[in-house]
Fold each of these.
Amino acid sequence: MSKELIRLRDLCMAFDDEPVLNHIDLYINDKEFLTLLGPSGCGKTTTLRIIGGFATPTSGDVLFDGVRINDVPPYQRQINTVFQKYALFPHLNVYENIAFGLRMQRRPDPNDPTGKRKVKIPEEEINQRVMEMLEVISLKGFEHRKPDALSGGQQQRVAIARALVNRPKVLLLDEPLGALDLKLRKDMQIELKRIQQQVGITFIYVTHDQEEALTMSDTIVVMDKGCIQQIGTPEDIYNEPKNAFVADFIGESNIIDGIMVRDKVVKMYGREFACLDGGFAENEPVDVVIRPEDIDIVPVEQGQLVGTVTNVTFKGMQYDIIVDFRGFKWLIQTTDHSPVGARIGIKIDPDGIHVMKKSQYSGMFGDYSSFSEEYDELDDASLALDEEESGDEE
Amino acid sequence: MKNKLSHFAIPYVIWMALFVVAPILIVVIYAFSSASGGFTVANFARMGTYAVVFTRSFKLAIIATIICLLIGYPVSYMMSKEGPRFQRIAMVLIMLPMWMNFLLRTYSWMSILENNGLLNQLFQKIGLIALYNQVFGTDLQYFRLINTQGAVVLGMVYNYLPFMILPIYSVIIKLDRSLIEAAHDLGANTFNVFRRVILPLSLPGVLSGITMVFVPSVSTFAISKMLGGGTEMMLGDLIEQQFLGGAYNPQLGAAISLVMMVIVVVCMWVMNRFGEGEEQAVMM
């Protein structure tokens, strides 16, 4: 998990003078599951395409095992890609789709002492490796089917096998689960993680789905507007977001203006709250993130803050409650029902409060005034659409 | 007939019955009739006499189809790689001659290829004919261009080339870009991407292009008459003679037509089978 495999050094990219990537610095370790996460147009697909060799950066370097590979064409890189819409060859059956990469390979002839002569991979070995892959993706017996006779999930798995059979050092996955339905997507998330651990190679995964990223990744890189906003483990990203953008993009967040009175004390709504953060200037304005599940509802007289319930949604495992605190609406997730219009008190433990420095994103997120159930899903759908368009660039 | 919209197909069905099925039936009936109207197979017995014409027609049509394919495929492939503006202009240029009547186009080739035509005048001016005479010790006034098999093939290629380019181009242009990227990603160089992905996937376009060039070529009669000068008689001319010419014999004409149709259908069927086989073969 520790050896560095890929490094992006000061990577910049522009399409028609429109900057898409701004000074990206990133290293990726061997055998790591790394996710590039961000909304459409954040530059994550472009980053992936640069690593795959399908796009050339305007400036900056791509290093693979310490060697600069900017000008190495895709077919000479030890990297394979699983494309967004699978891109299986429709005229070839499953077996031949998976065997495609092996048939393209030439390697030194073992019988040639000079080692200069190149030979094809023998048919028995191709057969053995393809069958091995079919086992990995649990599609044995499907080898003679054409891709159009497979379901979306099966096509997805063939696309993964087709890339993995070449034993690349890195597998790139461009929103591979975007076209699957929710249930299948959840299954495939687990499946993908299992495959990654089984074959033991680096996966670089692009998605706009924060849940997918949290489920599968060792490391998440959150991107927006062509810049890296935060790099960290899923726990770090969720618990210690660097700015309001990350806090809002990963999970649900109430983001409130606050003032850091001194270490471990933050002031919101004119009231001091105990927290665990420090290292800020005295009375520095800050953004305070409070996750909806970290808020306890208590009787009014015991509450640190008192507000009015304006909306209640039953979500199965919990209620999503929107509470108005002096005009700023919070989202609270709780198992206890409170009726609309009720006055309630809330209590937040010190470890439920996370303080962030002010950033360009301050004031843009974290208010649930426009909250509605459909809102999130609509947003997701439009993101997926945008992403397709941006994928067609060039 | 469950679909209500299928009612709109009725005029077409009637049209098909009147102008496609009925004429073919009439051709079949005529082909098996004697001049007096009785049943006979005598018309087919005479077919051997025309073997030369059959061979010539198929030979010229095959040559024209191959030339169309050799020109048409690269043109389609290169067009598909250019920008949309170039593609639009190229498309207009390819279609442009088709806005003019087929006979007029062929007439203009006559005036180009004639003994005193544009080409020969040009060769005269630049001294090509004199050079040829000097080198080969001949005494030509002009090159014999018109009234040759070459002129007939040229006429076919010129007239039918768009029918080769259009289907191939429309298949290639619709190929998913990501398939090509995927092939590159899996280690295929440009040549292998073409051979393993683009070529097999464009095969349906090639097959329909071949059909659309070969079928009209094999039965053409105006081109061979005008550019072949009647000396290189082809099937179309032969059939025409039986109906409109001095050799008036519609029963024989129908029999020749029928044999030609059967041969063409068999050719197409074999080729389509071969096409499917090719797809499999490319896989291996």
Amino acid sequence: MPLSVEDLAASYGGPVVLSGVTFDAEQGERIGVLGPNGGGKSTLFRVLLGELRPLRGSVRRPPRLGFVPQTERSRLDYPVSALDVALMGTLSRVPWWRPIGRVERRAALAALDRVGLTVLAGEQFGELSGGQRQRVLVARALVQDAPVLLLDEPFSGVDQTSAELLERLLVDLAGEGRALLVATHDLEQARRFDRVLCLNRRQIAFGPPEETLTRPVLEATYGGEIVTLPGEAAVLPPHHH
Amino acid sequence: MHAVWEPWSHPFMQRALLELLFVGLVGAVLGCWIVLYELAYSAESLAHALFPGLVAAALLGLPLLLGAAGGVLGAAAAVALTTRLPGIGRDAAVAIVVTTLFGLGVLLALTPASPPGLDGLLFGDLLGVTRGDLAASGALAAVCLAALAALHRPLLATGFDRGSARSLGARPLLVDLGLLALVAGAIVVGVQGLGNLLVLAALIGPAATARLAARRVPAMMLAATAVAVACALGGLYLSYYADVAAGAAVAGSTVAVYLPLATWARVRRAARRPSRKRGRSRLSPAS
């Protein structure tokens, strides 16, 4: 089992911001992580990445985790190409002091090809569209070649083409045996994942979508007053997208 | 033609040029990271804060690098202690410590009891650089450049997205400390020739100029090196023929190159704005 979390609690030195989180991720599994802004999705990712020490509980994780942040976190004025960004993924595989070789360059180009950006490898990162930038960050994570990938709202602000490509890519990556944790606000998309983890400062539910994406669970996750379910579809208010 | 080659017939001019090439090379490469990390003001503060360490090392006959290291540690401790004083914010603490330490260094360097030549640490003495100074600067410059080459990938990843750097395998705190140590090292490389007050021109000027046009970090470093070499040559010619202080002439030439290029870049950006929008939509489709 590539990832296992048991009774996790975390804080930033003050009050507890996340507690009671217990879940595991199997090889080839796509897990949607749902929750409101401030609900603990980013905190969970920070603990899994080793950036934040858990207050209690245990985390069993592989030595290398791939992480795809939201594209807004990257500097758009930074003088790097899409290929440069993809090559940053080699830092976890090749010692930091060693220059990049042909093997790494080939791996980065292959990753860019996989996200459909070979033609734009030489383009400046900051001049790409939001969706293209997100795909470059996914390519960077692919270069890391990690068994577990954490994706922080990879579909937010992404054009339709990129979103479709990314969704297909997630299926392929899971098919290769990688475990994927995808933070998302898109409930319809979450229904297509293998399991869903619902957080709102604590774990609300974890399990298959048909068991977790129910009205009581969503109301506990997002707050009763803000979820509407017209027929089968669950809709969140705009500030959660 | 004679006027072009004539200055270089003097050994003191040859040594000055070589010293500037060492400073320029380290300054150009390191300066790119200082500019990209938006640390120009911090680098200047560091240069001033470690000044008493340099003076103390010179007075005690110790290596300047040791003095710089002591100066940096002393300044860090002083900032940490000052921020604990009630009613003083971090920003004000840094300002108080930097000005106090710099004043202390100037006092030590310029007091009549101090041996002659210490004022060179403040203003530099480019034309008085000795072979020994050159050997020390060259060796330290080589070490700095090797360290910069080794740190290139972590520096690039951390500067691009500090929040994700750890997940990629970089250690932002260590990267920052490495950068700080390199800035201190570069100041020692340049202090003999340009002095504590002007060495920042070599660290910031060429890189800031290159930033105006370069679209990739390696290109930015190459352009900064070219600017540094051009300013070294231009400044030394100016000093030789106009009989002005060499360090000031070199520092002034970096500003003289930067200002028109910055204006040109601004005008070009403003003129391109509508067409850039068109260019962006070209990239937007599926591709």
